[in-house]
C-alpha cells in the first residue's frame, strides 16, 4: 500500500487547479444514480478528482496538498463518463481539513491554523504554535497560492493554546460534508403535468434540486429572469441555493402555464 501510494503521489501534477494521478484505463464507470454523498469522482478524459457533496454538487480539490489532508490515496475514486460528470454542478473548492496543517501566503506574514469550514485562525506567537503543533511546528506550514486564499474565511485569533485544539478540530470534521455543513437538497420534480410540489417552504442554507421526471424538455426559470436551470432533458437536474429569505416564483419556459413558488425562511 505504501509503495502504491508513493507511486500515485509521484504522478501528481497540477492541472487547472486540480491534479492528475495514475489509474487503470479499463476502470468501469459509475452511473449518476449510483453515486452517494461523500464519493470521490472523476471523468474519463481529465484526471481531476472531485468530492461529491451531500447537497448534490461536486467540490474541487485545488491541489494535492489539500487532498492529502483528507485522504491518503485514490483507491475509492469512482469514474464517471465525461457527459455524466458534466451534469454534476461545481459547488466550490475544498479547504484544508481542520487541525491538520497551518497555512500562509507569500503576501501575508501571518501563519494560520485551519478551523471549521476553512476558518483562518491566526497563530499569534511562536510559543502558541509550539504548544499546538510541537517544536517542529514550522514544518507543519503549507504555502497556499494567493488565488486559493479566498476559499477561506477569517476566524478569531489564537492568543492561547486553549483557544484551539488541533485534534478536536480534526475530529469534528468527520467528512467534507460535515465540515461544510452540507445537507441533502429539497427536491422539486418537473413533470409533464407541472411542478411537484408547486409550492415549497425551504430554509436558507439548504439547496433545492429540480429534477425532470417528465418525458419532454422542461425548465425552471425565475419570473424575473435572474436565474434559471436552462433546458432539462428527461432525468436531468439543476441545483441552486436560495440564501436570502423571500418568495421565489418560477415557470417552465417550455410550458408557460406550469408555475411554482419557493418560500425561503431563515
Structure description:
The protein has 266 residues and is α/β, with parallel strands linked by helices. It has three domains: 2-93, no CATH class; 102-180; 186-265, Cupredoxins -  blue copper proteins (Immunoglobulin-like, Sandwich). It contains seven helices and 20 strands. It has helices at residues 2-10, 64-70, 82-87, 126-133, 146-149, 166-172, 176-180, and strands spanning 14-15, 18-19, 40-42, 50-52, 58-60, 77-79, 90-93, 102-105, 108-114, 119-122, 141-143, 153-154, 186-191, 194-196, 199-203, 208-212, 221-222, 237-240, 246-252, 255-265. The strands form five sheets. A five-stranded mixed β-sheet has the order 6-3-4-5-7, with no helix packed on it. Strands 11-8-9-10-12 form a five-stranded mixed β-sheet, with no helix packed on it. Residues 1-18 have low confidence and may be disordered.
Brief summary of the model shown:
It contains seven helices and 20 strands.
Task: List its salient traits.
31% strand, 5-stranded mixed sheet, elongated, 17% helix, 20 strands, alpha/beta, 266 residues, Immunoglobulin-like, disordered N terminus
Amino acid at each position: 500500500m505504501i509503495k502504491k501510494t508513493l507511486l500515485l503521489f509521484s504522478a501528481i501534477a497540477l492541472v487547472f487547479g486540480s491534479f492528475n494521478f495514475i489509474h487503470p484505463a479499463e476502470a468501469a464507470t459509475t452511473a449518476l444514480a449510483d453515486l452517494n454523498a461523500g464519493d470521490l469522482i472523476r471523468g474519463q478524459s481529465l484526471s481531476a478528482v472531485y468530492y461529491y457533496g451531500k447537497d448534490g454538487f461536486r467540490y474541487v480539490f485545488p491541489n494535492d496538498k489539500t487532498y492529502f489532508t483528507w485522504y491518503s490515496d485514490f483507491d475509492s475514486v469512482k469514474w464517471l463518463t465525461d457527459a455524466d460528470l458534466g451534469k454534476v454542478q461545481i459547488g466550490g473548492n475544498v479547504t484544508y481539513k481542520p487541525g491538520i496543517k497551518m497555512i500562509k501566503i507569500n503576501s501575508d506574514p501571518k501563519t494560520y491554523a485551519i478551523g471549521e469550514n476553512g476558518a483562518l485562525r491566526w497563530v499569534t506567537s511562536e510559543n502558541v504554535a509550539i504548544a499546538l503543533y510541537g517544536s517542529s511546528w514550522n514544518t507543519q506550514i503549507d504555502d497556499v497560492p494567493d488565488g486559493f486564499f479566498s476559499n477561506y474565511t477569517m476566524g478569531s485569533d489564537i492568543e492561547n493554546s486553549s483557544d484551539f485544539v488541533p485534534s478536536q478540530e480534526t475530529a469534528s470534521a468527520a467528512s467534507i460534508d460535515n465540515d461544510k455543513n452540507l445537507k441533502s437538497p429539497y427536491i422539486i420534480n418537473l413533470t409533464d403535468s407541472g411542478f411537484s410540489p408547486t409550492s415549497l417552504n425551504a430554509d436558507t442554507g439548504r439547496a433545492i434540486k429540480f429534477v425532470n421526471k417528465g418525458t419532454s424538455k422542461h425548465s425552471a426559470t425565475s419570473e424575473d429572469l435572474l436565474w434559471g436551470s436552462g433546458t432539462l432533458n428527461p432525468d436531468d437536474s439543476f441545483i441552486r441555493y436560495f440564501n436570502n429569505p423571500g418568495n421565489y416564483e418560477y415557470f417552465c419556459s417550455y410550458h408557460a402555464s406550469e408555475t411554482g413558488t419557493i418560500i425561503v425562511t431563515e
